[in-house]
Amino acid sequence: METAVQRLGRAGRTWRVAAVLAFAVLFCAGSLVGDDDWWPFGPWRMFSTSQAATGSVWSTEIEVQTADARGQWVPAPLTPENVGLNRAEIEGRIPQIEADPSRLGTLARSHAALRPRSAQWTALRVVRRLIVVVDRKPTGEVRTEVLAHWEAP
Predict the structure, then answer these.
(1) What predicted TM-score, i.e. pTM, was given to this entire model?
(2) Residue 2 pLDDT > 70, yes or no?
(3) Is residue 101 reached through a cis peptide bond, with omega within 30 degrees of 0 on the bond before it?
(4) Tens of pLDDT, residues 54-93
(5) Which residue blocks in the chain are alpha helix, DSSP H?
(6) Cβ proximity of 145 and 125 under 8 Å
(7) Which long-range contacts (CB under 8 A, 24 or more apart) does 83-87 make?
(8) 68: three-class secondary structure by DSSP
(9) Do the beta carbons of residue 62 and residue 127 sit within 8 Å?
(10) What is the distance between the alpha carbons of residues 61 and 76, in angstroms, rounded to a whole number?
(11) In terms of C-beta distances under 8 Å and separation of at least 24 residues, what long-range contacts does 77-81 make, across chains too?
């Protein structure tokens, strides 16, 4: 038994061609001038660009002080289990945190709520480490820059 073939009408072909052309224009424009905000029509910068062979690679971290640590800065993981947010969520808010370091108090309060048995954080800072690279190999030189600092009242 043969099934009859149905052909698209003029209207069906027209809107499909229009949709394909619109998506092609969006993808081309996104590739040429788009950025992360254009996703899915623009490239994600982290996948569409590369670092120079010589320069620096940066890593954002938080360091904390507790009453137990007696003034020592200790690295703390930027994880949902530890502060309620991912590293990317903190990195995306660096300009706001630099403008208002009191926002870091939210991380300390989140940590206290998530880890009630851990020592309370009395101070917190966001640190950017620049790892110097020559010909894609780390040189061992690390430059540390404090971006924002908060202390408990």
Answers:
(1) 0.64
(2) yes
(3) no
(4) 888 888 999 999 988 778 999 999 999 999 998 889 998 9
(5) 10-33, 45-48, 80-83, 87-91, 94-99, 104-114
(6) no
(7) 83/107, 83/110, 83/111, 83/114, 84/110, 84/111, 84/113, 84/114, 85/110, 87/60
(8) coil
(9) yes
(10) 8
(11) 81/114
